[in-house]
Amino acid sequence: MIKVIEPNTDNVTIKAVKALMTEIHRDDAKDRNKDRNYVNMQVNPCKMCMPMGGALALKGVKNAMTIIHGSQGCSTYIRRHMAAHYNEPIDIASSSLSEEGTVYGGSKNLKIGFRNLVNMYQPEVVGVLTTCLAETIGDDIERIVREVRDTGEFEGIDIIPIPTPGYGGSQTEGYFDTIKALMAYFVKKPVHVGKVLEEALEPLEPFINIILSDATCEDVREIKRMVELFGVKAIFIPDISDALDAPFTNHYNKLSEEGISREELKKVIYAKATIELGDLVGPNHSPALFLEEEFGVKAYRLPLPIGINNTDCLVHALAEVLDTDIPKALEVERGRLMDGMIDAHKHSATGDIAVFGDMNLVMGIAGLVLENGMHLKLAATGSMSKRFKEQLESKLDQYHQKAEILQDTDYETIREVIQQEGVNLMMGPSDGKFIWEKDHVDFIRVGFPVHDHVGAQRKNLMGYKGSLIFLDEITNHLLDQKHKGYRDRMYQTYYPKKESHKPIQADEAVR
Length: 511
Ligand code: SF4
Fold this sequence. Notes:
By secondary structure, the chain is α/β, with parallel strands linked by helices. The protein has 4 domains: 10-39, no CATH class; 50-186, Nitrogenase molybdenum iron protein domain (Rossmann fold), CATH 3.40.50; 199-247 and 255-328, 3-Layer(aba) Sandwich (Rossmann fold); 343-486, Nitrogenase molybdenum iron protein domain (Rossmann fold, 3-Layer(aba) Sandwich). Helix content is 46%, strand content 12%. The chain contains 21 helices and 15 strands. The strands form 4 sheets. It has a 5-stranded parallel sheet with strand order 13-12-11-14-15, with helices on both faces. Strands 2-1-3-4 form a 4-stranded parallel sheet, with helices on both faces. Helix 3 (50-59) packs across helix 9 and helix 9 packs parallel to helix 12. The structure holds iron/sulfur cluster. Iron/sulfur cluster binds at residues 49, 51, 70, 74, 77, 131-132, 166.
């Protein structure tokens, strides 16, 4: 007789299956990642997928549009997260693959979708991103895009195929791969006209390429300001600062007129250097290394400028590239951050911190947590990166601390560790709100996506100024925890009930 298994009965809950697998692999039980990977099942993974990062990068390109080759759900998922996070209208087209396209190939759908998109939006640039489905059925988007171009109907539109299989990595790899694909498409080796380089005929003011991952729109504006204090222009590849945080106007444009233009993209090889902020993706994903290897533009790969040490790295790199002194204004801002660190230090030690989300952001925030004397209990990401683990372990050693490091993880595991380690403050994207709701652990929303609060795009946590704003926010959360219930605690400590006549212990008075 066949036994019908009812869903949600005890024997088939996800928890029970995991418990069984843990039992079977008792020897591995201490290694959470290994255990998790063996089970190959995640509950609410701690990452977004690759086309999400691709769509985000394309939003920072002027007059660009994205079409996602896959099922409608993929583009809806991306649109929904981006629209809620940025509170801006987010248009992303889809080739809407259905059963027929899945079985016989999605070329027809993609071509129809592409034509509709051009009719509606008249873009200058179109990024064609793939998804799990398009990659699994083996659609050759290079060929499909070539066939679209060969019709001659779309003269003047730059159509760029970008492979971003959802399972191929996180949004971080999707973001960097898309920037690299833009470079590979637009940047060409200079052609000589007589003795003069054709592309260099126009005089160019000195500039630096900046590639910045996991930044808010305000962070981009802040880093731009810092670079420009050195007297050079910063070209952000891409530039989401105004595109995804646009001021209100009476005129609505379907496509963003902000962001890096295709003309600027063609000129990135004339930069003094490329500074890539967010150095944890593998070298094969790095646009800065691509520009260096192919065109000789010097590459600097640095951590996100969060906290004093990481921001110093950026400032010193800029001084080195430009062979100049650090501007006075930045020295003043650094001094102000140090002053703020001194203000915070007497409260920082009460912080038992968990950070989760994108690996670059987790690493940046972990640096700020450690350099301010808080206790890092957990650093978790959905990505897999050898560099993430190595760099974090070395940072922890430097500050004589130990923390749980999770990669390729999910929110169920994160919750378990937070409970075990007695974390009192979490920082990460909105997906952590379930832990906040259920376990009442204090929570600062940071990273992407933040869809249950407003203003995520205006938050500034990078640079000396942003780090200070962020440190103040953290310290104020810790102070609120201290003050919450303070009177009641003091009353209970210093006015014991008469009948108990229990003497007050010194350590009771401290807590
Ligand atoms: S993981 Fe795959 S199926 Fe899911 S939204 Fe991303 S690309 Fe689409």
